[in-house]
Amino acid sequence: MRRITTRAAALRRDERGGMIIFGLFVFLLLLLAGGMAVDFMRTETARGRLQATLDGAVLAAADLDQDKDPVEVVRDYVAKAGLDPFLIDVDVTEIAGQRIVTASAKSDVTMHFMKMVGIDFLPAPARSTASEAVSNLDVSLVLDMSGSMEGDKLDQLQAAAKNFVGIVYDTMGAEKILLNVVPYATQVAAPAGLLDMLGAFLREHSYSNCVSFSAADFTETSILEAAALPQGGHFDPFYTWGPLRYDDVTFVCNPDPSTEVLTLASTQREIEDYIDGLVAEGNTSIDVGMKWGAALIDPDLGSTLNEFANGPSAAGINPVALWGDRSTDKVIVLMTDGKNTTEYRLPATLGTWSDVYIDDARDEFWVRQTDDRDADDDNRYSNDTWFWVDGRVAGRNNFWRRDNRFPHGGGRIEDNVRRLTYEELFSRVSVYYNAYYHHYLQNFDRTELDTWYWDFLDMSLSTSAKNARLEAICTAAKNQGVQVFTVGFEVEDDEAIIMEDCASSRAHFFRVSGGGDLTTAFESIARQITELRLTE
Fold first, then answer.
1. What pLDDT was estimated at residue 443?
2. Are strands 98-110 and 483-489 parallel, antiparallel or unpaired?
3. HEC string of 134-167?
4. Which pLDDT score is estimated for 393?
5. Which residues have C-beta within 8 Å of that of residue 28, sequence separation ≥ 6?
6. Nearest in space to 107 (alpha carbons), one of 44, 56, 36, 39
7. DSSP-derived pairing of the beta strands 121-133 and 533-534
8. How far apart are CA 461 and CA 284, in angstroms?
9. Three-class secondary structure assignment of 336-378
10. 353 - beta bridge partners?
């Protein structure tokens, strides 16, 4: 008995084996913690798989091009993933131009280790919402109508542009689109009524309707911020002989109404008919086209455009979205087949009155000699002071007359003719015709021709000056958040660089070499700007 008591006492004092018991408790705790981590990972894996499946399902169901019932699309996605038992609810909301799809699901994941603490399962919930909506669109289609586009190239451009318009209208609907078409050549013609509504516009004549922008005007998109908008001159700077006719000359500012910019068109058909009526002639002013393209989607001009298009009752209503409006995309599509060329301008110091007179009854031009003519015994006209140029047939019946010898019934010549303004003169004859017939032949002095032609056009803008203006307006538009797409149609390498620099990115520039490529480029742009966007 004593031995047993002694052993029991020794056992109480013996601490050997205590760590084993503690270690067993620690092991059980680590096993439980590790097991819980495994259970949590299994739960998160299940939730992640469920979430990914719902994300794909609602994206597909929210697609406005989706023909199937959105609810069935979600159910099919979930079923094919083998997760259909976990789908709880699918909700679809459709409003004009928008579809919102929400789906929720939950999977109860059985626990392996957490059962040890009384937890048999953990929920793995998932919820996903996708909304695809067609944004509003303010877009300017800026098209090169210079002489190099004449013929097949114009036909190809018209087909490509109409296809662009069709895609945009079919995808978005007319109520979400504000589309402008800006044809440009040496200048851009605007509707007379619109220009006259601009307080800064300085009208000098009614023959045509263009603006001579200053370099500063290209640093901003607005056209209303300009201190002054001088009217562009109406004249033919090229070597056109004979009296000008409305339909067979190349005026710097084309007077044909079919060449005016089109804005706030009411229907797709109106735009397509307008594109069909475009004509190609003149030089290339990409910078001026881009300036107008930007101005027409600038909200500063919006209420003026609306009043011009719809009358005084529309005053104060702005159909052009404000900058930063997240519901509207602003886009410019700028197309050219070449590079900026000379933009001809008349000297600012020209004044009003020319030194050419006209007999209105016979459409005959007269020039009066202001300096003494050299006496010439062999020239019986040496004392005559008026030179008569038959305005109907160039090169015929050109001769000198004395002041009092009007050839049609006698009398003083000055009593039977009327002095022309420069606007009137250049609506009838080209600058070169005027220089040759009204000045060179007046004194038979070659310097008169040089002065009145080459020096006369000395204020014209060069390619380099216009390239700088193009760069400025492209930058101004991009700074306002405008997506600028550019299309170079059979352009040279240096021209391609300029157009690529103007675009919002390299991916926004399309260099094409044929009609098929041109159509593809315009179609690609149309698809991009009408692409459905995930808003949530």
1. 65
2. unpaired
3. CCEEEEEEEEECCHHHCCHHHHHHHHHHHHHHHH
4. 41
5. none
6. 44
7. antiparallel
8. 11
9. ECCCCCCECCCCCCCCCEEEEEEECCCCEEEEECCCCCCCCCC
10. 421
| Contact assessment for residue 76 and residue 58, using Cβ atoms and an 8 Å cutoff | no
* Residue 338: closest CA among 148, 472, 160, 186: 148
- Residue 465 burial by CB count (10 A; 0-12/13-18/19+): exposed, middle or buried? middle
pLDDT in tens, 308-336: 888 887 666 778 888 888 778 999 999 99
Residue 230 sits at φ, ψ, to 5 deg, of: -65, 145
What's the token pair of residue 85?
């038992």
Looking at per-residue confidence, does 527 or 377 come out higher?
Answer: 527
Q: Rounded to whole angstroms, what are the CA distances from 371 to 83, 425, 440, 536?
A: 101, 22, 14, 81
By C-alpha distance, which of 370, 356, 346 is closest to 420?
356
Cα dihedral sign, 247-248-253-259 = positive
* Contact status, residue 222 vs residue 295, Cβ threshold 8 Å: yes
> How many other C-beta atoms are found inside a 10 Å radius of the C-beta of residue 82?
10
Cα 213 from Cα 195, distance rounded (Å): 13
User: In whole angstroms, what is the distance from residue 416 CA to residue 442 CA?
Assistant: 20
What amino acid occupies position 458? D
Domains in the chain and their CATH numbers?
18-133 (no CATH), 136-345+460-530 (3.40.50.410), 353-456 (no CATH)
In sequence order, the 6+-apart residues with CB closer than 8 A to the CB of 468 are 215
Distance of CA 9 to the CA centre of its chain: 100
For residue 209, the model assigns a pLDDT of: 96
Tokens of 493: 């390498």
- Structure-token pair, residue 376: 């010439």
CA-CA-CA-CA torsion for 454, 459, 462, 464, nearest 10 degrees?
140
In Å, what is the CA distance from 474 to each residue of 58, 153, 218, 305, 406? 39, 25, 9, 22, 58
Q: Which of 356-365, 369-378, 400-409 has the lowest mean pLDDT?
A: 369-378
Give the pair of three-digit tokens for residue 300.
């500063």
Burial 302-319 (b: 16+ CB within 10 A, else e): bbbbbbbbeeeebeeeeb
- pLDDT tens-digit profile of 387-437? 666 544 444 445 667 777 787 887 888 889 999 999 899 988 888 888 887
- Nearest alpha-carbon partner for 116 in 230, 31, 3, 8: 31
Q: What's the average model confidence in pLDDT over 181-203?
A: 95
State residue 326 phi and psi, 5-degree precision.
-70, -15
Q: What percent of the chain has pLDDT over 90?
A: 40
